[in-house]
């Protein structure tokens, strides 16, 4: 009986060893296949001229009561929106980004506590300006419409349809990756094969930004300049025997 149990245990151990060995071999093969080749990163950069300006603007009103602050802010914002649409900005390109009603307090030293002295209403929108050469004139119109309640936070520039620029940047990124792989293959004294893996990374459009610091003699000068679009790829090239 003892010999029977020993034989059974031995058979189980052999089967387990074979099973474990088989899993180890399969795992090793997969891992090896994933690590084989020459791994490189390529980068493509394209300089583009923006054709869209996005203006961040709004109004801010402060009064003794919420109702009064809301009324002042609403009136000023309606005038700002009218100024935008009158100057060619489509309503669909105007979007509310932020709205808040906050208490305004001050510290009372005698009472040793904060007391409410009023309420502040802030309403911020973004306006997409498609006639980019009119950005300065639109800023002037908005500043005049909202008067002292106007708040212009900044302006950014972008490209409405960047797909053609992405294609160009992608070609440059692949060419860059190929050049790096060829140099590595030459240094390692191996023959470079075809790509076995390609992955496109994040596309980085570097947007131009500038700040507007209040009303200035019209027209306000706005220059979109140029922006840079960067695209990266990771490529694995096979090594030929």
Written overview of the protein:
The structure is a single chain. The chain is α+β, with helices and mostly antiparallel strands and 241 residues long. The chain has 2 domains: 95 residues, 2-Layer Sandwich (Translation Initiation Factor IF3), CATH 3.30.110.170; 107 residues, 2-Layer Sandwich (Alpha-Beta Plaits). It is 39% helix and 40% strand. It has 4 helices and 8 strands. Strands 3-4-2-5-7 form a 5-stranded antiparallel beta sheet, covered by helices on one side. A 3-stranded antiparallel beta sheet has the order 1-8-6. A hairpin with a 4-residue loop joins strand 3 and strand 4. Helix 2 runs antiparallel to helix 3. The relative contact order is 0.22.
Element-by-element helix/strand order: HEEHEEHEHEEE
Terminal Cα separation, in Å?
A: 57 Å
User: How many E strands?
Assistant: 8
Biggest sheet statistics: 5 strands, antiparallel
Helix coverage percent of residues? 25-40%
- The fourth-level CATH homologous superfamily of the largest domain is Protein of unknown function (DUF541), domain 2
Count of domains: 2
Proportion of strand residues: 35-45%
Major β-sheet strand ordering: 3-4-2-5-7
SSE order and pairing:
Blueprint: H1 2-35, E1 38-48, E2 52-63, H2 66-86, E3 94-108, E4 113-129, H3 135-146, E5 150-158, H4 163-188, E6 191-206, E7 208-210, E8 227-240
Antiparallel strand pairs: 1-8, 2-4, 2-5, 3-4, 5-7, 6-8
Helix pairs in contact: 2-3
